[in-house]
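User: Can you predict the 3D structure for this chain?
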Amino acid sequence: MKVNIKELNKDSNDLMEVREFLFKMIKKEFGYDYVPEWHQDVMNLDEYYINPERNAFFVAYSEDGEIIGTIGIRAYDKNFEQFKHLYSNETTSSIWRLFVDRRYRRCGLASKMFSVAENFAKDSGYRDIYLHTHKNLDGALRFWTKMGFVVTLDQGDELETVHMEKYIKKLEISPQASILTYTLKI
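Assistant: Here is the predicted structure, written as structure tokens:
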């Protein structure tokens, strides 16, 4: 299976298709439609992901051009009291809207999409990545811990919300090491 992952741009047709995919996935996963206070980023993809220099939104397309996955990354912009002194929009990025069409799950696509977003965060100078997910989403907590995230707070609420973070590791290689001819597996 050949998949193409592209960074979303301001093309109005692309924005509309991505928005439709996101709301379809939100309905399937959470059972509800548009909620204004929760979906401003979906309605304003350009404002949240495209225009800011250190933000991005990536879309996975099947061979025939169908949207099959999404992930957004942006500067941390929440004001949770519990994290007021831990995260800032200068050092912390946050993951949003990772969705993979059910027909394309369990083949590594979500991991690959996260890898693209993590590399973007690293290249953009972020130190860590924040996200929140829900324990009742099939496989979500297991997936994110597999990606290296740790739970920082379990809300214990009716939505089963957990907050997670991951420190972005940066590998620095000295100029002398560049002459080595073997590979390190990290």
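Residues 78 and 130 are 10 Å apart (CA to CA). The chain has a mean pLDDT of 88.
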